[in-house]
Amino acid sequence: MQLIQINAHTWVIQGGANIGVISYEGRCLIIDSGMDKDVGREILQHVKKLGLTPSALLITHAHADHFGGADYLVRQTGLKVYATRVEAAVMSGPILEPLYLFSGAQPPRELQHKFLLAKPCSVDTILVGNEKILDQIPLQILSLPGHSSEQVGVAFADTLFAGDAFLTPAILDKHRIPFYSDVQAGLTTLNTLKRQTSSFKHIVAGHGEIYTAEQQANRAIDYTIERLESILKDVLNALADGTPRTTADVLSAVATSQGATINALSQYVLYQTTVQSALSTLYASGELQPIFQDNQLRWQRVGKA
Ligand SMILES: [Zn+2]
Q: Could you tell me which residue ranges the Metallo-beta-lactamase domain spans (predicted)?
């Protein structure tokens, strides 16, 4: 992992995920903790080299690759952990992540690897998502729902840590269908974020390159918006002839259209979540309706029956 200095008070430790480090009047806030103990150890090594003692850890959202190292950091330093309510629930009961991905049923072992199932970590302080101070550090917590239901970001001075609110084009091209538990909330978050990037000199996404210009960040945000909108369009196209289709059929059509090839259970359930949230979004906006045929749940375009 590589330590990148942003300014006199801010660093990013770049690895599988981007870890933020903020130092302010003797306090030191870490943003996200990477996937596991090994990442936690590397974070501590870097922070110690800077002569800092971590006092707080903020988890942007409870995906294993963002909070898996939290337990190690707490044990080693006793730092205080902050997260929003739903994310905190998953952190203290991490089986919830593979469990919700498998519709609440006992998840098969393929869904219980460290990318989806992290070590538990309890949260000391539940965030509302609009705090202006955390661990005595003046900052702004931003509510960024969509990728995860109660995801937050952090604005500190000229730097914005955006969690996984948007993904870089390289990552989007690799994953084809980005993970969103709420496509509609995600689009609202992205459009709001786009109007805020001009206030920052550094924009740090949860993974990938750090943006130092509003235009670069907005290009990535626009690309994420485009991908989500194209998924919504693919769902409508899959149902365009008026024939009611199952979620599985819609998922298959969307994946093909997005250029994805599904060959693993984890990939299937991650894509399925995004497609289900697209179905849910289009149902809420009155464009689709669920119907039941042959003991199957099928989706139908409204007005096309
Ligand atoms: Zn994530």
A: 16-207
